[in-house]
Amino acid sequence: MELSTLQTVLLSALIVVVLVLPLTVHKVEENLEAFLFCCGAFAVTVSHMWSGHLVFTALKDPIKITLAVLIAGLLFRYLNTHLQKLTQKAVKAIGLRWTLFLIVLILGLMSSIITAIIAALILSEITVMLPLERAGRIKLITFSCYAIGMGAILTSIGEPLGTVVISKLSGAPHHAGFFYLIQHLGWFVLGGILFMAGMASSIRECTICHAPGAKAVQIGGDNSIKGIVIRAAKVYLFVVALVFLGDGLKPLALKTITHLSAGWLYWINMLSAVLDNATLAAIEVTPIIDDRTLTFLLMSLVVSGGMLIPGNIPNIICASKLGIKSKEWVKAAFGLGLVLMIAYFFILTAVL
Q: CA dist 138 to 123, 144, 164, Å?
């Protein structure tokens, strides 16, 4: 559909509001799910995109992830003691630095097989058992979510982004199969995951955690059954909001980012920090896309997706589970994301 000037202005202003208010208004930050839901509904209304199919999709799509969060939360609640012992043994056997390195490396590499959702659930449970202060735990979460987001794109089952891309390129001339994205992005993704694992290994240990009788420092999150149910409900509402937001802003994306060069797409795709990256990929990826543009496009989506909480499903799960606020996430992840975006841009420009 063609957007009027007023619609374009309103949707552009909405993007600014979504980026700014959670970082500057405490009430918005405390009620982020409801805020994004209202923003999504507003976007769909402005774009005239309301339909029974959209509502059905928005209500249906979050069911699987919500059930995964709920079931895993209940399961981990009863396996907490065993996980804690296993984590303590790992730290004692190989040290905290190598434990952190391996957590990020393994979850990043395995996310393409066990899915980004399961990797994030495992991460959120393990993190609270490590001898780290709150700031260190948040860093570990953000580094790991970057790695999980990168790794999950390598197959069609890791996350929806990979599914969309492989589906759209399955015919001529690309004939994309299960290993298509590994062949095109594998080395770039592996380098990013190793970098994140190295960053995690530099996180400092919490000295007070070794004091006699000290317990692992908690970082938010209610592990009661009521708390687990509420957390799952918030994840459900969050995903509903992102579906509305993605569809509502889709006409603006179609108007502004189609037919752009690889370099322009790379930087404009920083919108993935607040928009579903699968939605952007569905707009931008076509059978006529060349391999160079595809690599630029996908690497920008997976890197920028880690910069803000709404940018990726692992971010949403871990932030909800561990009570990480928008400002805390930005402090730990946004600057790192900008550095990665710049580094990858120069690397891709030089190599491709």
A: 11, 10, 30
